[in-house]
């Protein structure tokens, strides 16, 4: 094997850089998120923290409201002892705020600072509780919550290791999403293979208007997936959709309005839309393989008296096998990662009946802003895609080696 020299490496360098930026970096980043309880809707988990941190901005906001409310409520206090405690707490909080002046965001905190803050938080909560018990003040509902925010400003480490993967193993919703993804992938790809092969053989025939047939057959594939899904949503509409009423007429559904409202109807509808959309792509890949088969082979079979069926199974299928495997590889990986079609058409409903791994991951990451667990789902999907690709490539490589 020839070694790669400096010139060859420089030639490949732009490709390596692009792959690293757009493929490896996102994968590594997502993999990193899986080890953290990373949630943007929680102030204490809105970052990746291996060690304890302190939110200076939250403390500054807390002390501002705390001192303002205490100054307001102490006007009603007549007990000199309690007044002294309130003044002491206000002074300590303000002194601590001055000590933290100039610090922003989330930074490391020393053990001494943490201990002082916890003591200050406990002392403040005791004073606030005593104030609420003895006097009917205007801020008696807000002050206890604000006092606790002093301690809440201390952000614990949110490194959880493999707990996210352990949670995923017991997640029934994730299991259902994996089943839905598998059903959608293999059923849709199977139909696309059969229909795509038939369409490819039609387009490969020498006939008048062959160019027009090839052009028009690619129109569904050329339409953006989101647009196609929106179009099919109108066709499936129970009140005015022609496809929904057609299904009711032939007895596939009892009521056209229930087409997208039942688990089976929604899954069948998404598969049908995907088959319509991507069958031309499958046909295009198979057509390229058909055109590489020599016509002399078919002529020799005609001389031997082979029928069309015999030629199909003894010539077309064996010689087309590498193209079939390539087409299956591309379509299986694409279907397993399906998102936009289902997101626009059903949103994963009804009741999660069409929720795939990509839809579940999207909801976890962006609807719930739980990037930690959402990344776990994405990595599980990544592993599944890698396994599928490995299996296909292994068979494809073995087939090509046998062919050579």
UniProtKB/TrEMBL annotation:
ABC transmembrane type-1 domain residues are 178-392
Topology relative to the membrane, per the entry?
Answer: Multi-pass membrane protein
Please give the SUPFAM superfamilies that the UniProt record associates with this protein. Answer: MetI-like
> Which InterPro entries does this chain map to?
MetI-like, MetI-like_sf
Q: Which residues cross the membrane?
A: 9-28, 183-203, 215-235, 312-330, 371-393
Name the UniProt key words of this record, in alphabetical order.
Cell membrane, Membrane, Transmembrane, Transmembrane helix, Transport
Tell me the superkingdom of the source. Bacteria
A Gene Ontology biological process annotation?
transmembrane transport
For this record, an example GO cellular component is: plasma membrane
Cellular compartments annotated:
Cell membrane
Which family does this protein fall into?
Answer: Belongs to the binding-protein-dependent transport system permease family.
Know the name of this protein?
Answer: ABC transporter permease
